[in-house]
Amino acid sequence: MPENDLPVAAPGAAESPAPAAAPPAKKKASSEEYIQSLLITIVLALFATTFIVQAFKIPSVSMVPALLVGDHLLVNKFIFAGTGKWYDRFLPYRPIRRGDIIIFKYPYGDHPYYVKRVIGLPGDRVRIIDEHVFVNGAELQEPYAIHDPARADPYMADFPPKSLYLVAGEITPKWASELRRDVRNGQLVVPPNRYFVLGDNRDDSSDSRYWGFVPRDAIVGSPLFIYWSVRPPRHAPPPPASLAEAFKDLGRAILSIPTRTRWERTFHEVH
Predict the structure, then answer these.
(1) Domains and CATH numbers, the chain
(2) What is the rounded CA–CA span in Å between residue 102 and residue 206?
(3) pTM of the entire predicted model
(4) Of 77, 116, 222, 229, which residue is the catalytic one?
């Protein structure tokens, strides 16, 4: 209301204080509102884990030293999600690069996910000579790779193998057929929409040398960071003899978590 239109008290009239306004009554949330809030939370969580990030646990030594058994990762599922549309340049997408660590659905069998490092991109020519990796004729500099002579596989130290008969028991029949098709002049040529991957722990890794290429549509994303890392127990406890023993084992496992946690790896970025 404008100032000139403010109400004026009559002359000589006593001004009585206005009664204090009662505080608004708190509205009790109905069960329907609780259910709606819960459903929205679930939908947002599902959206995040489906399209943006997802948690994974490292179960094997194939990526040592970059990733250790017991590392728990948050994986960026959004980074490689570009579809080639015009609007991709406005979003934080990027192509898969040589040297990227990727999480992918294992192309064969029923193992849900693998984690490896990208070595060969579509069109690359890959050759391994005496455990040294060459891509397109140039040796790849790999400060992340380690070798264990005690576990070395002589058939895979030089790849592609000169004779597939020598490794017939170590690779899948389908991969043997693809090797015959894609090896040219002693080099493996990576087909379109396929990637050649290796584990950093070269002598203790089931990777593209043994089962083949990773299809583009099998790649889930790339690790963001390690949010928690715990050393696995040195010895698996025997099966509990009773329910009471099972609860005791669970209690001991929980109490040992602080001492088994690798605190120095918490929020550690993965390279």
Answers:
(1) 54-231+259-269 (2.10.109.10)
(2) 15
(3) 0.77
(4) 116
